[in-house]
Amino acid sequence: SARQHLLNQTWVRTASVDAQLPGSVVIRVSEWQPIAGYHAGKSGKLFFLSDQAVVLGLATTEGTLVDVQGPAGADPRIGDHPLDAQLLTALVNIQRGLPGLIGQAAAGFVFDSCGDLTLVAKRGWKVYFGRVLTPEEFTTLRDKLSALKAIAGQVNYNSADLEYVNVMNPAEAAVGYKSREPAPLS
Q1: Facing residues of 131 across strands?
Q2: Is residue 116 within 8 Å of residue 124, measured between CB atoms?
Q3: Nearest CA among 50, 64, 100, 55 for reference residue 82
Q4: Tens digit of pLDDT for each residue in 143-181?
Q5: Which pTM was predicted?
Q6: Which of 26, 137, 158, 181 is deepest in the core (most CB within 10 A)?
């Protein structure tokens, strides 16, 4: 019962309670480590997420955690799963791999109430991935990232004029600039 009591705590990942004779008890606990910060809509409250996309508690700082803005609404409660764990893992991997892929860093991600995913680059421009709610939609992320890399020679990701890259259809990526109309890339 002591082990189960420990496992019911949100931050506890694993726990063991072993009786040692004579009259000792050895307790081992490992905690979840936060890998992302999550906030609902434009809410100012940031919550730690575990790698299983479980809300661990209110975050004290953002640091180097992946920043995920979810749909507008009520703040999540401790123990909630505001995102799919597989999607959260993909977001962490995208943030880690983006500098090597296109030479830019991600500031964070926006996941809206329709299931559309947007990456916000540190330079301010955005990547529109489209819906990622179903397993089929989720598997298209790899093709969309490949499209982002494929157009790197045609798009200056350092440009202050760059507004967005739309890879919702990876075969026909589109780029929008602040100073002109969007143009599809072939």
Answers
A1: 116
A2: no
A3: 55
A4: 999 999 999 989 999 999 999 999 999 999 999 999 876
A5: 0.84
A6: 137
